[in-house]
Amino acid sequence: MPAPDLSNNHRDTLNKIFAHPVSHNVEWQDVIGLLGAVGDIEERKSNYAVTLGSETEVLHRHGSAKSLDADEVLSLRKLLASHGIEPA
Question: Domain for residue 88, yes or no?
């Protein structure tokens, strides 16, 4: 279950990440905001090191893409779910 202090925008982003079928309208800036609200995020060139609990995973942003592709959304969904961060 997500942290209770998520903003409406963060909750909307979380819902998009867990939508079926996979949403193709999940923007990087919204994901970065959500990840910063539930963990720690550090930008490293075009990559983001995301730490949730004691686990750190690196997300790769392809070029100047505005939105995540389907595989990136699925990977992010798996990461969040593994830490109990899911839509209510």
Answer: no
CA distance 25 to 44: 24
pTM for the model stands at 0.88
Q: In what order do the strands lie in the sheet with 40-44?
A: 40-44, 47-52, 55-60
2: in domain:
no
**Number of structural domains the chain divides into:** 1
* Beta carbons of 41 and 50 less than 8 angstroms apart: yes
pLDDT tens digits, one per residue of 17-50: 999 999 889 999 999 999 999 999 999 888 899 9
| Contact predicate 50/59, CB 8 Å | yes
